[in-house]
Amino acid sequence: MAESSTQQSQSKKVMLSAVQPSNRLTLGNYLGALKIWAQLQKDYDCIFFAVDMHAITSRQDPEELREQTYRALATYIAAGIDPDQCILFAQSHVPAHAQLAWVLTCHSYMGELSRMTQFKDKSAKQGTNIPSGLFTYPVLMAADILLYQTELVPVGEDQKQHIELTRDLAIRMNNLFPKAPLFKVPEPYIPPVGARIMSLQNPLAKMSKSDPDVNSAIYLSDSDDTILKKLKRAVTDSGSEIVWDDEKPGIKNLLTIQAALTGKKVPDLVAGYVGKQYGHLKIETAEICIQAIKPIRDEVERLTKDKTYLTQILKKGAQSANARAQKTLDQVYKNVGFILP
Fold it and tell me: Is 179 a catalytic residue?
């Protein structure tokens, strides 16, 4: 007798990841997350979602946030995420995320949260009125992960610190209740190529969907002409030789993009540019990006017009996510001394 889909999923390791829907997704989001998820979904029990609760750590226009959440869902599907193979939902549709986050907040320490690099960076930009959500959102992120007994979390290098906090909280809670450990301790999954795509205007900084300079990022919604213009303007350096060198971060970034999109090895790419100018590299990188982004962009536009379909996907995903999350939350509530309803 063939295994049921539930039995099959239980036999696979749980992999979970998510993206904020507060801004347009970029090529960096695609190469560092979506493309990888699509490749891994058959081998793992995958849970993916739009973290709309994380998004409100900064002020959002309500209508725009709703639209961006739909668009994020459409982008996941257009990038190859199969809602029949994965659980795909919106974070706010599963109350257990906030409920577990409060319990974990009560077991986390001010010192470890204040050491979070992203908090220090973002709070420095906020001035005096720093939202408390910026301080505590790594705990919500930990709840996101631990709720589903996650074993692997695909993350970029800049998120490793948050995974370490999640692991610390899981171990801390498990040690408090050793007779019935509450959580699996997750491991980061960091792909070797393409996990960290840099800004086109500042190749020492990561490409960010929230960067105020629109020329710094390639968005998955950009037109072919826009992609070409942005890559022609990409910062390189004063030299002319196309080599893989830490002194040439702009060139390294373009080669990384090509390697991640084509699957070719960097040394092979470099060998193909012997004697060629930077202009060749920029134009050919643009052509590769256009070829990859156009079908995603067109499918996103088609899907975002079908809110009925997207709402059905969200409801189906929320139902599955709630069922899993509630099991973990009940166990946590029981152990900390709450009366279960």
Answer: no
How much is the pLDDT for 6?
46
Annotated active-site residue 122? The verdict is yes
The C-alpha angle with vertex 143 and arms to 62 and 131, in degrees rounded to 5, equals: 45
Q: How far apart are CA 148 and CA 325, in angstroms?
A: 6
The vertex-196 CA angle with 190 and 199, nearest 5°, equals 170
> What confidence tens digit (pLDDT) does each residue in 80-138 have?
999 999 999 999 999 999 999 999 999 999 989 988 877 767 666 666 777 888 889 99
Among residues 35, 206, 230, 252, the one annotated as catalytic is 206
Residue 18 is inside which H or E element, if any? strand 14-19
Do residues 15 and 60 touch, judged by C-beta distance below 8 A?
Answer: no
CATH number of the structural domain 5-190+307-336: 3.40.50.620
Predicted confidence at residue 182, as pLDDT, reads: 95
User: What are the boundaries of each domain within the chain?
Assistant: 5-190+307-336, 214-301
Query: Is 232 part of the annotated catalytic residue set?
Result: no
Residues 30-75: tens digit of each pLDDT: 988 888 889 889 999 999 999 999 999 888 999 999 999 999 999 9
Categorize the per-residue pLDDT at 293 as very low, low, confident or very high, splitting at 50, 70 and 90: very high
Q: 214-301 domain in CATH 3.40.50.2000?
A: no
